[in-house]
Design a protein that fits this description.
Elements lengths: L1 H18 L1 H23 L1 H4 L2 H27 L10 H37 L7 H19 L11 H31 L3 H24 L7 H32 L7 H24 L1 H38 L4 H25 L4 H10 L1 H7 L1 H16 L7 E4 L2 E8 L3 E6 L4 E5 H6 L2 E3 L5 E10 L5 H14 L22 E7 L4 E10 L4 H18 L16
Antiparallel strand pairs: 1-2, 1-5, 2-3, 3-4, 6-8, 7-8
Helix pairs in contact: 1-2, 2-4, 4-5, 5-6, 5-7, 6-7, 7-8, 8-9, 9-10, 10-11, 11-12, 17-18
Length: about 550
């Protein structure tokens, strides 16, 4: 019994996956798509979808899942029949009955789910007088025959051509399903757009487009309709697709602006969306009209789509990791560096994909890059060391963007840290570009990090002046200065430097004067030159009032007789 069970199981699986490939895989594909769409509608419910659509999709997903479970259960019930005397031919006939029964149930589910939307679309267009019973009969019958034919189960007797029956039902089925889908999209359009004129134009175009798509795709499975009609339908699909692309390109910026979003690259994004939509509709039209031509041009369409998506992803990464974080956060060094690295990886990946779209073998290219990696590393040793140093700077953060630092005696503000160089702008406007490796090997004075800095100022006093009085005047000037960094604490952890008291002392005895130097604690973000200027002007003013001389360099020469 066990052996026969496994033998028949193997036979059944072979029959399913070889003889009924389209039915089984279509069922799994439909479940996956519906489940994904159900999750998306749940996630984006408040923004794009209404309860009307959610309820319809939930009901459809639930019914299709139940049908899939029922279909699998019926197939499993057929396995033990071989053990109780049923022939394999009989079991195959029973499997055919199960397939047809499942198609009829699927048709019932589709009719029950989409018929209310079709009726609503007819009422919207003033066709309320259409007989509802005939509508239900046509929808269910055409759906059943189309699904049975599609899965290769339609069998006819005498001289009735199955292609003829299929084609007639497709002509009946297409407008009804197109109306239902258009009604669902109508709700989304009303949710997203405000212009009634734009909604009407787009709705009519979508109705025609859905009808042509359903008709063109369905007729490819029939040999009864002349392919010239498919070419005409494909031409209309291309025209409608271009028109929809133009409408989306014009309305996309308006929709974002109404919702309070004003992306920096909105024009570029809208243009790319228009190009992607137009190119894919043209590709679909070519595919439906002539598969050989599409196969020849498929690489081009894929390449255009890949490049467009690459640009969109790069702009998105730049907007999120660089623009937004730089505006909202002072510490944006890591985000900018990471954003540039991600953009580089996206571009490299897109390049490989585009080459593959044109049937160019990328394996030799990857092998060449791998084999030449050592040579490139040796040739670009300095650049690689700069890149590694840049990563080190970003990870361990000796300084960040907008920090005031001194590197190699160059004092200024850090304005950029890229893969190879660090850019520092001096206070005279000069831009100093320093290789990252040199930055890492240099002594870095980060003035910004401690938030407070003791600014040194020196002044010379004549030897005959009252030094104690001069020191007292300078102390008063320091304590009354508006630049003194009162209340700013030392931000460096484990530091024992006292920032409360300023430094004042006699530094040296020079040839022409006594040098007095003092250090005043100021904010690290302040302009040091302005502070030094104000202090020196105040010292000159007070010294003149107190008759304290600031000498100039002089040399006394004594001539011996």
């Amino acid at each position: 019994m066990v052996d026969s069970l496994f033998d028949f199981s193997e036979y059944t699986m072979r029959t399913l996956f070889e003889g009924r490939f389209s039915l089984v895989y279509s069922a799994f594909f439909a479940i996956a798509i519906l489940g994904l769409f159900w999750f998306a509608t749940r996630t984006l419910y408040k923004r794009f979808f209404s309860k009307y659509i959610i309820d319809s999709l939930n009901h459809l997903v639930f019914m299709v899942l139940n049908l899939a479970l029922l279909y699998a259960s019926l197939l499993l019930l057929l396995i033990p029949l071989s053990d109780i005397g049923f022939k394999q031919t009989t079991i195959i006939e029973l499997m055919y009955v199960v397939d047809v029964f499942s198609c009829l149930l699927l048709s019932f589910i589709i009719t029950k789910s989409f018929l209310p939307h079709t009726q609503r679309a007819l009422q919207t267009r003033g066709l309320q007088s259409f007989n509802q019973h005939w509508l239900i009969l046509i929808f269910f019958t055409s759906t059943a025959i189309v699904s049975i034919y599609f899965f290769g189960l339609l069998k006819t007797r005498y001289y009735i051509d199955p292609n003829l029956i299929y084609s007639i039902n497709i002509i009946l089925f297409t407008p009804l399903l197109a109306l239902a889908i258009n009604d669902l999209f109508q709700v989304v359009l009303i949710k997203c757009f405000r212009s009634k004129t734009f909604i009407d134009i787009l709705s009519k175009n979508l109705l025609i487009l859905f009808g042509l798509l359903i008709l063109s795709i369905s007729m490819r499975y029939s040999n009864y309709i002349d392919l010239e009609l498919l070419n005409i339908a494909s031409l209309f699909i291309a025209v409608m697709g271009i028109q929809i692309a133009i409408l989306l390109r014009e309305q996309f910026p308006l929709v974002l602006s109404r919702r309070g979003h004003k992306p920096k690259y909105i024009k570029v994004i809208s243009n790319i969306i228009g190009v992607v939509v137009a190119v894919n509709f043209i590709g679909l039209a070519i595919y439906l009209s002539n598969y050989n031509t599409f196969k020849y041009l498929s690489g081009f369409f894929h390449a255009i789509t890949t490049i467009s998506i690459t640009v969109l992803l790069s702009l998105f990464v730049k907007y999120i990791f660089i623009d937004e974080i730089t505006i909202k956060h002072v510490d944006s060094t890591v985000s900018i560096f990471l954003g540039r690295l991600i953009i580089t990886l996206i571009i490299l990946s897109a390049t490989i994909i585009v080459l593959d779209d044109f049937n160019l073998n990328t394996h030799p290219l990857l092998a060449l890059l791998t084999a030449g990696g050592l040579a490139v590393a040796l040739a670009l040793q300095s650049s690689l060391s700069n890149f590694a140093a840049g990563l080190w700077i970003v990870i361990f953060s000796p300084f960040k963007l907008k920090d005031k630092v001194k590197i190699n005696s160059q004092l200024g503000i850090i304005v950029d840290i890229d893969f190879l160089y660090t850019r520092l702008q001096k206070y005279n406007g000069e831009l100093v570009i320093i290789p990252n490796a040199n930055v890492l090997s240099s002594v870095i004075e980060n003035i910004h990090r401690s938030k407070i800095y003791r600014l040194p100022v020196s002044v010379g006093v004549a030897y005959g002046s009252d030094i104690k009085k001069a020191l007292k005047i300078i102390k008063e000037i320091i304590e009354s200065s508006e630049h003194a960094g009162r209340g700013i604490k030392n931000a460096i952890k484990n530091s024992s430097i006292n920032t409360e008291n300023n430094l004042l002392y006699v530094k040296s005895f020079d040839d022409s004067s006594i040098c007095i130097e003092f250090g005043i604690w100021v904010s690290a973000l302040s302009n040091f030159a302005v502070i030094q200027h104000d202090l020196r002007m105040e010292i000159i003013k007070r010294f003149e009032a107190e008759n304290i001389e600031i000498p100039f360099n002089q040399l006394d020469i004594h001539i011996a007789k």
